[in-house]
Each structure stands twice: as C-alpha cells, then as structure tokens.
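Support reply, case 0932

Customer input (verbatim):
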Amino acid sequence: MHKPKEEFRERALVVGIVRPNQSRFLVNDYLDEIELLAETAGADVLERIVQKRNRIDPAFMIGRGKVEELALAAKYLDADLIIFDDDLSPAQVKNIENVCEIKILDRSGLILDIFAKHARTREARIQVELAQLKYLVSRLTRQWKHLSRQVGGIGVRGPGETQLEVDRRLIRKRIAVLEKSLEKISKQRSNRRKNRSDTFKAALVGYTNVGKSTILNALTNASALVEDQLFATLDATIRSAELADHRRILLIDTVGFIRKLPHHLVASFKSTLEEASDADMLLHVIDISNPNFREQMRTVESVLAELKIDDKPILKVFNKIDKLQDSSLIAKLKNDEQPCVFISAKRGIFLSDLRDQLHLFIERFSKTMEISLPVNEAEIISRLHDLGEILSIDYQDSQAIINFKTTTINADRVQRLIAEKNFHVIEL
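Our regenerated output:
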C-alpha cells in the first residue's frame, strides 16, 4: 500500500514590532495570531523575533542591523521564509530579501495565501485573484529578478521598464475583467435576495474561527464546512431554520474578520458581505473561551462600522461556553452586553435559548397592520401571504379587513404596494 503523501510544511520565523504606547503583551497576542495564520497556510513557526522601535525604518522596517541578525537566525535555523506581522512596502521586501536571501512575506500576503487555499467556489476564486492582483501590482518590480541589473544609466534603459509597464498593464486589464465579473455576480445575488425578501434574515458575523459555521449547522441541519482553521469559510452560505410557531428564518454565514485586516481585502469581499448588509439583524458570534475575546469584539465592531452595517439590531452570541474556565464571567457579561445568549454550538448547549432570542427579535422588529381592500384583489392578498403573516381576514360587504404582521423592511414594501392601488393601511 502507498502511504499518503505528507504535506510539505515550510519552516518560518515571525517578526513583530513593539511601537510606542504599545504593550509587549498585545504584540505577543498579535504574534500568537500570526502563528495560527502561518500554521493554517502550512508553515511551522520556529522562532519569534520582536523589535522595539520608536519609528519604522523606511528601508528595512526593523532597521538594517536587526535584519542582519534576522538573516543569521534564519540561516542557523534553516528557515524557508520570514513572516512580518505588519505590511511591508515593496522596497522593504526587496531590501530585506537581499540581506536574508530567503522568501519574505507580510501579513497581507499570508492572509491572501490562506484565502487562495480555501477558495472553493467561482466567486471566492475571483475575489481572491482580484485581491492578489491588487496586492501584486505595486510589488511587481521585485518579481523581475532577471532585470535587477537595470537600475538606470547608459546602455540599460528601455526593455526592463517597458516589460514592467506591459505587465502592469496586463494586470490592470485582468483586474478590470475580474471587477466586471464580480459586478455581474453581485447583480445575480441582488436578484436572489429579492426572491428571499419575504423571510426574516439573520447574518452570522464575527472573528474568524469563533464557530459561525458550527452554529449554522446546528440550527439548520446543514453541512457547511467546519474546520479548526482561520478563514475556513470564504463564501456566504444561506440556510433556512425553523423556530417556534413554525416561523422560519434565513441564517447567513459570512467570512470571518481579523485584526489588521487590510482594507483592500475587505473591499475584494464586498460582494460576499453584501448578504450581511441585506439582513434584518446580525448575530455577532464571540468565542468566550478566547482570553482576548474583548479585543476580537472591538475588531468586529470596527469592521461592521467600516461596512456601514453597524446600525442593524445585533444579538451577541457567546459561543464555546463548554471551554470556559471562569463561569463567573457569564454573569458579568449578561449584565454588560445585553441582548446576548451563551451557548456551545458544538455540544448543543442552550441552543433553545438562541432560538427563543431569534423569535423575540422577529417579534420585536415586526409591525402589525390593518389593511382594507376590495375582496376581488386576490393578487394583493396572495402577495401579503408572501410578505408576512395574515392574522385574520374580516369580510364586510365588498371589503376585506386584513390584520397582518410582517418585518419592518417588508412593512415598507406593503405600504408601497397598497399605496399604488390607493387602498387603506393603518399601522397598529
């Protein structure tokens, strides 16, 4: 029998910077995260190097002397690459590579590599390629090792610069093609969302690897991919869940957030996150067992504000309570973070509390209306069935008096629908 081929794992050093007014503890926390990212990408971290600096060196990020120390450490440990926790400029990458003579990667490059590894659908692959090309276009010069001698002067002008410009132009053309493809996908998503407009929608948002997909599977009996890795989910997955009184709700699983997530990565995944922008409410999923969960909460809140969807009703879902060491934390959070629930999606603990809260949110953000229209308007009555719940119909002569309950968003649609016909609506 043939043994399965083992995955080749690169050997990496990670580098972090302690800036003024920044604690060593916070930087170590960042490096814990970059180690997880490296592990997800397929690298084993051999050692951490931390440099305290008052200002960033524009040529070498951590200073030439420290880079020379880094080169010696990489050679001694037989490392394959060096990963910086912060984004590097093209010049910094080139200068550090020249000294260390091994592959240099920054935070954005590492995240993009993980995205490429986990992209499964056509949309995810397009989004990843788009983000990679935007990242690459400003770093193109270092890709052309064979032109490195062409730095200007007599006898060396022309071909090198021309080739680089040709490549930049090709990349920009490809970016334009990908952006058009994403625009088309976005329109298709928009049409699909219109078909789901009658159902209450809740989007699962949160830090990467907090258990959003596990919650989706637990509430909907779906089979969304669940892995103990960062950025296991890149696409929006939508499934239907049943609550009390046979009410149904659509749950939308989205890509996870992370600290220091580069803006161009958020922009590239905008079409996926549009699903969250169309939701009636957000479920902010938090890994309560993570010692740094408060910092993660602030990161998610910051990204939601950047996406301009932080004004939606939000239910905080504290997950993984089965891993919590200090149970007294739950009582404090219940007092400070309302509305909230505490669950373990993996073990099915207190999922009924989450379902009850979802039902309450639907009730809280619903509107009851009284609609008066002729009994022969069967088409409108059928549409009302699609947009909400008809509580009762009272037939009086040629009129039908309908008591009707729907979501806040659908209430506006009903108002427009009735106004077009000049019929009567009263909000109760």
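We compared this against your earlier run and they match. Two observations from our side: Confidence is low (pLDDT under 50) at residues 142-160. The first strand starts at residue 10 and ends at 18. Please reopen the case if you see a mismatch on your end.
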